[in-house]
Amino acid sequence: MNRLLRLFFERTIRRGALEVVDPAGRVHRFGEEGAAASRVRFTSAAAERAVVLNPQMKLGEAFMDETFVVEAGSIYDFLALVLSNTDDPRPSLIADLLARFRRLTRHVHGLNDKARARDNAARHYDLDRRLYALFLDEDLQYSCAYFETPGMDLDEAQLRKKEHIAAKLLLKPGMSVLDIGCGYGGLAMFLAETCGVTVTGVTLSTEQLAVAQQRAAARGLDGKVRFLLQDYRDVTGSFDRFVSVGMFEHVGQKAYPLFLKTCHDLLVPDGVLLLHTVGRLYGPARTNTWVQKYIFPGGSSPALSEVAPVVETSGFVLADLEVLRLHYAETLRAWRSRFLANREAALALYDERFCRMWEFYLASFEASFRYADLVVFQFQLTRGLATAPRSRRYLYA
Q1: What confidence tens digit (pLDDT) does each residue in 256-305 have?
Q2: For the packed helices 154-169 and 186-195, what is the interaxial angle rounded to 10 degrees?
Q3: Are 270 and 319 contained in the same domain?
Q4: Is the CB of residue 197 less than 8 Å from the CB of residue 171?
Q5: How far lies 206's CA from each of 69, 122, 215, 230, 249, in Å?
Q6: According to a count of CB atoms within 10 Å of the terminal CB, is the N or C end of the chain lower?
Q7: Of all helices (H) and strands (E), which one includes residue 232?
Q8: Pick the residue with more confidence: 97 or 339?
Q9: Residues 6+ apart with CB under 8 A from 211
Q10: Looking at residues 216-243, what average pLDDT do you find?
Q11: 328 and 157 in contact (C-beta within 8 Å)?
């Protein structure tokens, strides 16, 4: 077994147990004696060496290529075991030095111009709609749900999320709302049907646009909801409210000021922006390289220290900031369970390597939201100091 890999597992695995089968077939055990162990196997010395040299990229690729095989438990069990044993979720000294170097080049990776933004969106969101139907809730909400109580199922938690967002938007009948990154249209239709507002949803995904338009037509929402294939930078007009759920991660760090300026300029003087985004707890970091390549090209989850200074100079008032901890972990747990239950159907749409890629994506994100530095930020931004109520009680009425 590679000495560096052995040293890493010896120092890391203290709670629970892990068995690693090396390419020669030898079993190496780490962690507590007598504890039930996850077991993984490297099928070649090359795969083992690649993971040691570049774990961010090569672990996921090895799982996809079946050169890193889980023999007992699941890939989530392995990732959760490693991350839950990492007492300090901040990077090690070496990892921090590498992260500092990568942050120097983040501006290059964060330049999401219109053409690149469209291409990045297509690579993830224009996948076959039937794939997403296999694991999302009935309303096709592809963002963090709001699990108010233990045991809440996914559909109810997604409904609670929409209600929570609607409350923060302080909607009144007749208002106009812009939904930036509207997905499959579920939130826009919910707001129109329950709050009596008109909603314009914009997306860069042709697949999501088609589904959203079909759903709105089927529900008789013509004149109340419209969906456009449009970049947020091309939106014109004036709106009472803005909402953006799960889109800010694709804006790119250099464009944060432009995004908020666009929202500010298009909102009426007593307008409200609800910005819901994945964020980082322990400072800026560049997106995992495997995620960048295979899942969310151009994606970047901001630290609060990256967003707050932009808000301060945007003209907006930070009326409320809520940190949703563990809600996305529960959402991803439900998605992963549903995906695995429907894996054969996914295999009929895509090949085995894709299905392993998708399982690794869901498992690694769940483990990261549960044990590492990822959370969800909900920023409520207003143009006026007195626009939002002084107390939060209205959110739970």
Answers
A1: 999 999 999 999 999 999 999 999 999 999 899 999 999 999 999 999 99
A2: 60
A3: yes
A4: yes
A5: 36, 8, 14, 10, 19
A6: C
A7: none
A8: 339
A9: 129, 140, 184, 185
A10: 97
A11: no
Q: Is residue 103 part of a domain?
A: no
52 and 142 both lie in a single domain: no
Q: Which two tokens stand for residue 256?
A: 């944060």
194 and 145 belong to one structural domain? yes
Domain with 168 in it: what CATH number? 3.40.50.150
Is a pLDDT exceeding 80 seen at residue 89?
A: no
Q: Is residue 319 a part of any domain in this protein?
A: yes
214: which 2 tokens?
């079909």
Residue 55, token pair as written in the block: 């774990």
8 A C-beta contact, residue 55 and residue 82 = no
Q: What pLDDT is attached to residue 120?
A: 93
Q: Which H or E run contains 277?
A: strand 267-280
Average pLDDT, the chain: 94
State pTM to two decimals. 0.94
User: What is the C-alpha separation between 367 and 289, in angstroms, rounded?
Assistant: 17
DSSP per-residue string spanning 52-72: HH-HHHHHHHHHHHTSEEEEE
The residue range of the domain holding 7 is 3-87
Is residue 102, in this structure, part of any structural domain at all? no
pLDDT band at 87 (very low <50, low <70, confident <90, very high): confident
Q: Do residues 82 and 211 share a domain?
A: no
State the CATH number of the domain containing residue 14. 3.30.1050
Q: Can you read off the two tokens belonging to residue 164? A: 């929570």
What burial letters (b/e) apply to 280-293, b meaning 16+ CB within 10 Å?
beeebbbbbebbbe
